[in-house]
Amino acid sequence: MSTHNWRGLRRVFRIPLGWMGVKADVDAELTFHSQGRIDELMERGLSRQDAEAETRRLFGDYTRIESEVERIDRGMNRRRTIAEHADAWLADVRYAMRTLAHQPVFAGVVILTLTLGIGATTAIFHVVDRVVLHPLPYPDPERVVYVGWSWRGKGNYAGALSPREFMFFHEQSRIFDGLVATQAIGGTVGETSSGTSARGLRVSEDFFRVLEVQPARGRAFVRDEFAADAPSVAILGHALWMTGFGGDPNVLGREFRLDDRPYTIVGIMPESFELAETESSGFLVPLRFTETDLADIGNNYLAIGRLRDGVTESQAKQDLALAFDRYRATFPDIVKKEGDAGPVLFTYRSLFVGGLEPVLWILLVATLFVLLLGCANVANLLLARALSRQREFAVRTALGAGRGRIVRQVVIEALLLGVVSAVIASVVSLAGVRGLVALSHGSMMRDTQLAVDRRALWFTTLIAVTASLGIGLAAALPATRIDLARSLSEGARGGSPSRRQRGLRDALVATESAIAMILLAGAGLLIASFVKLRAVDPGFVLDGIVTARIAHAPAGYDSAAAVDEFERRVLERLRATPGITSVGATSSLPLVRGLNTVMTLDGNDEAREGGLEWRAVSPGYFQTFGIKVLRGRQITDADGRLAPPIVLVSKSFADKWWPGENPLGRRIWIGKFGSRSLGKRAGDPAREIVGVVADMKDMALEQLRPRHTVWVPQAQMTPSFRSYVSLPSFAVRATDARVAATALRAVIQDADPRMGAPEISAMRDVASSSSSYQQRWFTLVLMSLFAAVALGLTSVGIYGVVAYTAARRVHEIGVRMALGARPANLVVLVVGQGMRPVILGLAGGLLAALALSRLLTKMLFGVSPHDPRTLAAVALVLTTVALVASYLPARRATRVDPLTALRSE
Questions:
Q1: Which end of the chain has the lower number of beta carbons within 10 A, N or C?
Q2: pLDDT grade for 26, boundaries at 50, 70 and 90
Q3: What is the pLDDT of residue 23?
Q4: Close Cβ partners of 349 (under 8 Å, ≥ 6 residues apart)
Q5: What is residue 279's predicted lDDT score, i.e. its pLDDT?
Q6: Rounded Cα gap, residues 889 and 660, in angstroms
């Protein structure tokens, strides 16, 4: 660092000189005065030798003087109080406020630009913080882990346990302070059977100890309440207490009905309580494992454990491995192959955040790019403003102000603007988080996570101060390198910027262009991917179909006959409704997760399969959705409860088990795995395959490989499967979607007035409601928004630079026009100079986009991260915008009358 720069920074931050600096200043001062005295004595006739001797006698011991000055300087430093520093800074703050108050448009533009960048960055940081960094609202969250089951030989796993697995590891493992099982449930809540739908949790005994939470009112469950014959009790969530019971403090001890079963309310959870991995915890009820539950080998219960203090993750895995050896020895019929299965430990991030984590980090980086672009834009504005004030700075320098004082003044102005922006951004970020929650449809965050906490506020303050300080120094240091004589002689107009100043402005424009190119490339790739996704053929009809889903059934639908009768009435009335061309019912709609089960080929216990997709459908289902039946027949009205049990299978399923053969007439056992039945799903008879259905994307539009799926008639659903699916969903194909929606709602209500209002959706909306689709839409909207902001800021920045440069060259342009230059040539000259940094930035941004776009690979569908058409289109858009932004001020500058331009000089 040069001596000149060091002195400037020292004055800005009030850094003391130190003894070497004081000694140098004293030596220079003494030399100046002694030389003057020597010259005076020599003029009186003394020789140089005598004059030097007399001067030494008059001035005395130089060493003593230096020591005395050092002592005085140290004393002055000690007497410099905080109030003196505060007065100096307050004076600069008051001056900055007066200066900015006289330029409200400039201040408003800067504040708006910084607020956009800081607010967006804070909002995304809040989501990253609450979803990825600090997602669990429990004490010592690093000790909270999840236990699942892994099929190592197949390379897949389930993030949950079966009841038998949970009970065994709950009793055998010694690494947990507690291990709890939870299961999400839904029901109709109210003091009558016509209450409202709500979702809650069944929780096992250690729930409150594992999460280290307690009810805000009342008490937690006690051990006796988990017995099979214990009275039914419940703890209400705060939201359900407020909406269902008006926040009545006397609600404890009262009964409420859940699916017409009475429960005694024993507690109210605190408002802040949430179970991060579930959609809702409106109520809690004890989880009581029955013998039937323990026979169920399905991994359907989320297991949450709290590690003992001091237990590491590796120790926990070793303990679980030992416990699994005991499990294999205890249940040799369950785990037959060595190393084929076993418990696995998950962190919250790996189990629930999953693929969402890279998406959020990419969005955070994108917002930081937007913030950086905004800072570059503001730095350009402040630099232009500072350059226009060089005459002011020159006058202040001539009056004795040091460069450091002027730099500090510009930095304080930037900090003031940054502080105001940070305050507004804090409010904006809260609104932004609400918008993010709404945009994600609750798939990432919920309303309980909306409050902007201290971490977000500290983050806002940090980036605001850092950005403002960097912007202020970037604008102040170049603008305060003043040639005093030149600045004062050039008048109020100021001179043309130096090469260094022009280089800085061009570098800022190039940076803006590069950032805009990166963001536009990311948004362009996501848009192209989304267009491909919307155009994908799922293997069934999406448009023209309206669906109805019923959340929960009222009392009386615990038998197959009651459900079948309700379904029959609804289907008959819908078929008779004008405008409806086709009707079907199903246990789960396409693109909505169905029931996961197992299967064994009849007569061969070794030919078995897990993870089979099971769906029950009515006659007319395949016609309604336009699903092709490749072989055999569809389900008909003849396939009733008393008819021979049948099943239709997907093409991929048939190709696996009977390649090149005809699967019709073969038989399979659903709900049976080898020689064992799957607990609650036992009792399903061997079914004859009567049809082969074309493969389709039944889980997600971006699904790459078809799942093995089986379809059974709704009327042949056995009680074991009926316990998982109480009421069917309905789908109609109609010429008018509004007619279909009205008919569905009216027919369902007429079939049973106690039914809650069904959820009516177009099938296209059902497809759009999947979590993967929502994540893609969420990322697309935000990236497109960031890219639009980046494009706008870049165009404003280019326009401002070209306009400023053209204004400073009015005299030059006037001279050129007076000498015969054509306006069109001058426009080309100005635009060319303005586009030079844009082209450089665009080239650099394109290279960066090629490197960074690989991060988007998992979010793309049918599009390469290096798609040349998308990147070329983005580059063309950015170049066009830059040309327009350069052309407008250039054209205005060439319309100036040459005589007026010359006279102004």
A1: N
A2: low
A3: 65
A4: 132, 135, 357
A5: 58
A6: 72
**Tokens found for residue 673:** 């795995």
Q: Taking a C-beta distance cutoff of 8 angstroms, is the pair 861, 529 a contact?
A: yes
3-state secondary structure of 306: strand
Q: Give dist(CA 129, CA 106) in Å, integer.
A: 34
Given a contact cutoff of 8 angstroms between Cβ atoms, the answer to whether 620 and 583 are in contact is: yes
Torsion of CA 828, 832, 833, 836, to 10 degrees: 180
* Residue 884 identity (one-letter amino acid): V
Using alpha carbons, list the distances in angstroms from residue 146 to 155, 176, 316, 803.
Answer: 19, 11, 11, 60
Please answer whether residues 394 and 482 qualify as being in contact, where contact means their C-beta atoms are separated by less than 8 angstroms: yes
**How far is the C-alpha of 475 from the C-alpha of 615, rounded, in Å?**
66
pLDDT in tens, 379-419: 888 887 777 777 777 777 777 667 777 788 888 888 898 88
Q: Which amino acid is at 340?
A: D
Cα–Cα distance between 236 and 190 in angstroms, integer?
Answer: 12
Cα–Cα distance measured from residue 260 to residue 191, given in angstroms and rounded to the nearest whole number: 8
Name the nearest CA neighbour of 305 among 157, 460, 153, 145.
Answer: 145
Q: Which two tokens stand for residue 196?
A: 């409202």
3-state helix, strand, coil in the chain (%, to 5): 55, 15, 30
Per-residue buried b or exposed e for 489-525, using 16+ beta carbons within 10 Å of the residue's own CB: eeeeebeebeeebbebbbbbbbbbbbbbbbbbbbbbb
DSSP 8-state class, residue 133: I
Burial degree of 286 (CB within 10 A; 0-12, 13-18, 19+): buried
Angle, CA 160 vertex, CA 154 and CA 163 arms, to 5°: 110
CA–CA distances in Å: residue 888 to residues 308, 377, 478, 506, 901: 69, 18, 28, 18, 19
Which helix (DSSP H) or strand (DSSP E) does residue 108 occupy?
helix 104-128
Please choose, from the candidates 652, 625, 622, the residue with its C-alpha nearest in 3D space to the C-alpha of residue 635.
622
Q: Which of 729, 650, 719, 647 is nearest to 689 (CA)?
A: 647
Strand partners, 148: 344
Long-range contacts of 455-459 (CB under 8 A, 24+ apart): 455/129, 455/134, 456/122, 456/125, 456/126, 456/129, 456/429, 457/426, 459/122, 459/125
Query: CB atoms < 10 A from the CB of 136, how many?
Result: 20
Q: Which two tokens stand for residue 625?
A: 């959705």
Q: In degrees rounded to 5, what are phi and psi of residue 443?
A: -75, -20
Residue 902: phi, psi to the nearest 5? -70, -35
Grouping H, G, I as helix, E, B as strand and the rest as coil, residue 14 is coil
- Which tens digit of pLDDT belongs to each residue from 293-350? 777 767 778 899 999 988 888 888 888 888 888 888 887 766 654 445 678 888 877 7
CA dist 233 and 288 (Å) reads 12
* Closest to 693 in 3D by CA, of 628, 642, 741: 628
Listed residue (648, 618, 646, 623) closest to 727, CA to CA: 618
DSSP notation for 709-723? EEEEEGGG--HHHHT
Q: Which of 131-135, 849-853, 895-899 has the highest mean pLDDT?
A: 849-853
Cα distance between residue 238 and residue 236, in whole Å: 6
Spatial neighbors of 271 by CB under 8 A, at least 6 apart, are: 216, 238
Structure tokens at 84: 């003196």
SS3 readout for 365-379: HHHHHHHHHHHHHHH
